[in-house]
Inverse folding.
């Protein structure tokens, strides 16, 4: 099958000023007011035939596929090549639960934010809203560093590091899967741990990799980080972070699977 993404606009010359319209889509500025959006699919790669299908759908045999020339108004369509993934994303319906709050969600898949598991499974899960998505992402460790290698040294899964603010006499223990100075850079850019001139950085330990399970690697990192935090506390130092296990993709996936299994048991 061959797919085309179609957007239909009403172009009014000198009328594309919407500064007072809060609902105006500025991404479409210069194209006019969008009237419709849909996908066309055909068994053959025939763009002219696809255009005829668009005209039939809109019941407009005079429809243009280029914006009217300067000084002229009119309705026209923008067609772009697409594929099955985007077609299905637009039309598919979902009947599932929010990956975060477990609220029941039902409707067009395009209406709900998706989560990318990063495992190339092709399986989609959804949030009920962008607020839920932002809440989960805020709890997860973000992609660290802007310009860094994704590969860690052989046999090493990550590092536990220590930051000491001399001015405030406070300590912070953290973890990173990449070379620690990239993580330190992010702390300095955020300003959350103090001024760079007041902070001493050091690596406490390397964490060896468990090749059989990425999830166990993360649990191991969390446990070692928690051990160092407790060690500093026991020795009387003021620690500015809490021992809170970090939410990971694996733990979120596991929790959601357990929830779905529970729902299935209730329905039996």
């Amino acid at each position: 099958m061959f797919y085309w993404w179609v957007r239909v606009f009403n172009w009014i010359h000198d009328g594309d000023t919407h500064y007072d319209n809060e609902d105006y889509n500025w991404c479409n500025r210069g194209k006019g007011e969008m009237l419709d959006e849909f996908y066309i699919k055909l068994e053959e790669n025939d763009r002219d035939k696809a255009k005829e299908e668009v005209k039939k759908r809109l019941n407009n045999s005079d429809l243009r596929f280029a914006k009217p020339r300067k000084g002229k108004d009119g309705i026209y369509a923008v067609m772009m090549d697409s594929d099955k993934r985007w077609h299905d994303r637009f039309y598919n319906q979902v009947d599932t639960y929010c990956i975060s709050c477990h609220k029941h969600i039902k409707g067009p898949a395009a209406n709900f934010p998706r989560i990318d598991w990063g495992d190339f499974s092709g399986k989609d899960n959804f949030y009920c809203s962008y607020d839920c998505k932002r809440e989960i992402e805020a709890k997860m460790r973000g992609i660290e560093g802007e310009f860094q290698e994704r590969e860690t040294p052989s046999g090493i899964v990550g590092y536990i590091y220590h930051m000491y603010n001399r001015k405030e006499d406070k300590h912070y223990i953290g973890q990173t899967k990449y070379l620690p100075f990239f993580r330190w850079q992010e702390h300095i850019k955020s300003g959350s741990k103090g001024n760079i001139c007041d902070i001493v950085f050091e690596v406490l330990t390397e964490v060896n990799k468990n090749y059989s399970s990425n999830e166990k690697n993360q649990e191991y990192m969390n446990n070692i980080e928690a051990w160092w935090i407790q060690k500093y506390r026991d020795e009387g130092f003021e620690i500015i972070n809490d021992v809170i296990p970090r939410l990971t993709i694996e733990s979120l996936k596991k929790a959601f699977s357990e929830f779905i299994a529970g729902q299935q048991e209730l329905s039996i």
